[in-house]
């Protein structure tokens, strides 16, 4: 509530305006403090009917900054509490072929995807040595975080001499194909994070179950 003082004298009129301004500010400040204290009381005593909204809001503020692991996990479960819109997290997606899960013991990624989403990211992060090793005979050792198992693995990545594609070797067959039960038709996702200095991996979709046919009379 504001109190305005009127006077026929300019001097007192000015003083009245000043007084009105001060009372306005004081009243507004007092109301703001009362509202803040009242909200605190509701917040902690549970009197606020929207306490669930408050908790959700607190969680949203808490998740304003995400680690790559948190982003990957939210994408994995099909939810997102991040307020900022962003591109698809999984820059590299592949529906596994027979050669990715058989005795060839390697995962092959196209040259185009590797150049666009790995080599360029490495160079932007000053990892030119990784690029050189990728094209060397022994390849480059890379860390891979499995978002589904929440565990880190180490694979060898190198350029295939005849196709120019990149292949993941060493532990791919045992630690991923066998342990994850990967098969032809499964879709996997990958992306590289310069901050974590590793790949992030997830099984995005499983191959549809094949129909089983029974012969009559058997």
Automatic annotation (TrEMBL):
It is found in: Nucleus. SUPFAM superfamilies: DNA-binding pseudobarrel domain (SSF101936). GO terms for cellular component: nucleus. CDD domains: B3_DNA (cd10017). GO terms for molecular function: DNA binding. The keyword Glycosyltransferase does not apply. The keyword RNA-binding does not apply. Keywords: DNA-binding, Nucleus, Transcription, Transcription regulation. This is B3 domain-containing protein. The lineage of its organism: Eukaryota, Viridiplantae, Streptophyta, Embryophyta, Tracheophyta.
């Amino acid at each position: 509530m504001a109190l305005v003082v009127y006077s026929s004298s300019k001097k007192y009129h000015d003083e009245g305006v000043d007084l009105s301004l001060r009372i306005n500010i004081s009243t507004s400040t007092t109301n703001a403090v009362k509202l803040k204290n009242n909200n605190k009381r509701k917040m902690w005593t549970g009197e606020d009917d929207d306490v669930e909204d408050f908790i959700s809001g607190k969680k949203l503020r808490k998740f304003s900054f995400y680690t790559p692991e948190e982003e990957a996990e939210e994408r994995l479960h099909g939810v997102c509490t991040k307020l900022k819109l962003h591109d698809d997290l999984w820059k590299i997606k592949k529906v596994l072929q027979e050669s990715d899960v058989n005795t060839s013991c390697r995962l092959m990624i196209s040259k185009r995807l590797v150049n666009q989403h790995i080599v360029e990211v490495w160079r932007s992060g000053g990892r030119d040595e990784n690029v050189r090793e990728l094209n060397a005979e022994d390849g480059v050792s890379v860390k891979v975080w499995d978002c589904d198992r929440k565990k880190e693995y180490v694979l060898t990545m190198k350029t295939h001499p005849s196709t120019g594609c990149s292949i993941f070797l060493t532990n791919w067959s045992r630690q991923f194909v066998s342990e994850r039960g990967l098969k032809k038709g499964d879709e996997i996702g990958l992306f590289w994070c310069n901050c974590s200095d590793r790949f992030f991996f997830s099984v995005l979709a499983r191959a549809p179950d094949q129909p089983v046919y029974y012969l009559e009379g058997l």
